[in-house]
Structures are given as structure tokens and as C-alpha cells.
Amino acid sequence: MQYVFKSSFDRALKKLPDTDKIKVSDALDSLFDFFDRKTNLPVGLGLKPIGKNYWEIRADLRMRILFELDRNLVTFYFVGNHDQIRQFIRN
Fold first, then answer.
1. Is 26 helix (H, G, I), strand (E, B) or coil?
2. Domain spanning 2-90: CATH superfamily
3. What are 24-82's pLDDT values in tens digits?
4. Which of 13, 42, 45, 67 could form a disulfide bond with 57, CB atoms 3.0-4.6 angstroms apart?
5. What are the residue boundaries of the structural domains of the chain, listed by start?
């Protein structure tokens, strides 16, 4: 599996406090393990489809990670709360 992080993801991540960055990193590690090592997906990640092409996982109760899955390519677009994710998709 290949992973691409768009500049929109990087910009949103830089704005987060360090404690939230750690949560995002942990959530991404779990997702990578799921895709690459075929481990069980932790229920707490809450993987679900959003719209036509997007998926999201939870980094914690308020923070989401938005990505697109296309065969062997995962493209990460944004990290933020529920409303910020919806706004990102609309734009």
C-alpha cells in the first residue's frame, strides 16, 4: 500500500497541539497496520465512508482524519473536527 499526504493535511496537522498530533499518529499507525499487515481494525477508529470517494477514521472523540482509498493508494486530505471535515468536503 502507498500513502500520500496532501499539503492540506500537513497544514491542518501543524495547527494541532502536540497531544493531538500524537493521537493522529497513533490512529494512522493503526490504519497502516490494518492495510499493510492485515491486522484487525480497532473498533475505536470508526472507519466509515463519507460521501462518494472519501473515508474517515477517528483520532479521538472530536478529531477525524479524511482520506481517499483507491486500490493500493491511500491519499490523506485533512484532519479536523466533524464540522471541519464536512466543510473541507464541500469546498
1. helix
2. RelE-like (3.30.2310.20)
3. 999 999 999 999 988 888 888 999 999 888 999 999 999 999 999 988 899 999 999 99
4. 45
5. 2-90
Pinpoint the alpha helices (H) of 1-91: 7-14, 18-37, 82-90
Place 23 in a pLDDT band, splitting at 50, 70 and 90. Answer: very high
**What is the spatial distance between Cα 70 and Cα 2, in angstroms, rounded to a whole number?**
10
Between CA 5 and CA 57 the distance in angstroms is 15
Q: Please state the separation of Cα 4 from the chain's center in Å.
A: 11
- Assessment of whether the complete model's pTM goes beyond 0.90: yes
Per the listing, cell 499518529 goes with 25
Handedness of CA 74, 23, 66, 8 (dihedral sign): negative
Place of cell 498530533: 21
Q: What integer pLDDT is reported at residue 43 of this predicted model?
A: 86
Q: How far apart are CA 19 and CA 35, in angstroms?
A: 25
